Each structure stands twice: as C-alpha cells, then as structure tokens.
Amino acid sequence: MAPRRRSIKNSDLPTGLAVKKVRGVDRFRYRYPNGKDFYFPIGTKRVEAIQATLLFNAEQRSPENLRMQREDKYNQPLSFWLPKIKPRILADKPLGANALQQFNANYDFLNANFGDVYTKMITLETVNDFLALATAGKSNNVYNRKLGFLRKVFKYLVDESAMETNVAEAKLTRPKEVKKRQRLKLDDFKKMLQASASIQSLHWLNIAMRLSIQTTHATLEVSRMKYRDIKDGHIRIHRQKVQHKEASRVEIPITTELQKVIDESRKLASPYIVQRIGRYRHQLSEGCDHPFQVSSKQISREFSKLRDELGIAANLEKDERPTFHEIRALSIHLFDKAGVDPQARAAHSDAKSTKIYKENHVEWVRVPAAELKIV
Question: Which of 25, 158, 276, 367 sits at a 20 to 30 Å CA gap from 257?
C-alpha cells in the first residue's frame, strides 16, 4: 500500500517528520528508521525541527545504510522474530501457570510497544525505554523481573543472529527491596484458628490453615490437595512453583494432627480436602475443576478478611499485614525450632538429604514424620 500523501501545509517536512496532535497540542514527531517515535519538546519551532531532521536523515537514512538494512535478512522487526523464538523459550524451560501468564503479558507488551523496532537497531536506550514504560511506579523487584524477561528474549535473538549482542545484559539490576509484609505471629495464628473454628461458614478456611501449618505448604498446594493423594500413610504434594525440579514432589507422613484435619474436612462429596459450597452451587471458580473446590485466591482473600475483622496487625498498612502465605513461613520456623529439618518437607529445591524413590517414573521425596501442636 502506498503511503498517504502529505497535506499541502506539511509538504515541506522532510522524511520522518510529521505534525501530531497530543492532548490537544500540535507537536512535531520524528519517526526513526527502526519505527521508534520521538516527539520534539513543546514550543519547538518548525525550522528547528526541520533542520534537526535533515541532519539526522543525512546520517541514518543514507542510501548506503538503507541498502545494508535491506540486505541483512536477520535484521527484521521484533514483531517478525518474537513469534519464532517464543516456542523455543517455552519449550526449553516450561513455566507454571502464574509464570506463563506473566511471560505472555510481558511478551504482548513488548510486541505491542516495540514490535516495529528492527532487532539490530536495539540498543541500551531501547531497554531503558521498555523499562520506563513497563515499570513506571512499580517496585524494584518488578523492575528486575522485567529486565530478566528482556535478557531472556534477547539471548534467543542473539542465538538466531537477529542481534549481535544481548544489550540487556549491560543494564544494571536494582537492589532488592526489604520485604514489607510482616511475619505471622503464633498467637495471631491461634486466634484466627479459634475464630474460623467457631464460624460454620469458615470451616473450610480452618481446614486450609491447619493443612498449611502441618505441611508447610501455601495456598496453591493447599487448594489442590485431594484425598486420592493419600498413599500408604502419606500425603503427596507437588509444589507448583518448582514443579519441574526433583525436590518439588514430597510425601508427608499422615500424623495424628494431620489425620484429624483430614477427618474433619469430610463434609461434602468432593475430591478436594479443602471444600465448600459457593454462592452458585454448580459454578466453577477460577483455576478450579470441581464446584466444591476452593481456589487459592479465595483462600487468601478470606484469610485476609478474617485477619482484618479480628484486628490483627491493624496498626500496619494493608500491604504490610501477614497473608495466608505467611503460615508457610511460620510452619517452617516452628518445625525448625522443634529440631525437624523443614527444607525437604517444604519442597525446597536444595533439599537433597532425604530418601528418593521412584514410582511410575516420577520421583517423590519422602520426609520424616513430624507434627505441630498448635492448640
């Protein structure tokens, strides 16, 4: 398709320069050969914008430069290369559901905002522009994760000869921020246990909290525990965050306390240990495959709601108050104090001292029997 002809009043503008209305104000916009846009400051005179564009075009839009770009078959827009490398990235290191969702969001953002940029014209400035757009107002941790995403994508682009060097490696990460969220105190946990036990509609939350404290596992694993996972006096748990690592599968012995939790959970005809009847009896919650299954988000949400109703950590800002996930930290701490190594139990990837055996070509790490007396 032929480019749209300029209006007569803008016929004097050189290649790449145009007038665009931004928030009601006419601005001079220059479009680089790589597709990136630059807006001249408000108040820039027409003659100044024209002169600056002519100088830049003489260098960047010379026939020799344009010919070199056309002849390099690997120098293509990001939108050309991204669909080619995405399957490789995901095949080389399969991601869990949450990580995959985040990867796709970053991928779509990069493609939408920088898809026109030619890969061999990507510089550290491109990296800075991406981070400025994607992390405005976000934490240092988010910033570092976005930078890690770029480094991974560019690594594959270099491997495909689409880039000469991984320029994102030259970008410095930001220092890790001190964790705002406070730890859950044992007394506060007991208070919440007692409150959830006394409220019939929160029976399922009481079960979820007790499962977490006895197993050291968090919301996602707790929400997915099934009765059929109980084998030979053990409950099998597959930790999703490190699901592709050897230590992610653990078998935890069914102790007296854990058996009590399992027995008290059997209220409905559900395969899941944490179970409840929702507002709509036959409707599936997000991430669930059974009407009576409770999603991890629901567990976290109701825990935080009960915490606030009881006035626990009321002196702290909301993002500093302990969440359901802090039961995992409390459990690990209590097992450690009791002289029980919590690493294998918690399915940490560096737990190597426990026995590993095979069944159906899947490895499970069997951990010693241990329980916590909370009340």
Answer: 276
Separation between Cα atoms, residue 337 and residue 320, nearest integer Å: 25
Is the pTM higher than 0.85?
Answer: no
pLDDT digits (tens, 9 = 90+) for 95-123: 877 789 999 999 999 999 888 888 988 99
Specify the fold of 186-366.
hpI Integrase; Chain A (1.10.443)
pLDDT digits (tens, 9 = 90+) for 331-373: 888 888 888 876 666 555 544 432 332 234 355 677 778 888 8
Give, in order, the Cα–Cα distances in Å from 256 to each of 16, 163, 259, 265, 335. 75, 60, 5, 14, 16
| Of 120, 32, 109, the residue nearest 81 (C-alpha) | 120
CA distances from 49 to 6, 17, 41 (A): 17, 8, 10
**The two three-digit tokens of residue 342, written as one number:** 């919590």
Contacts of residue 91, defined as CB under 8 A and 6 or more positions apart, other chains included, come to none
Q: Does the domain made of 78-170 have the CATH classification 2.30.230?
A: no
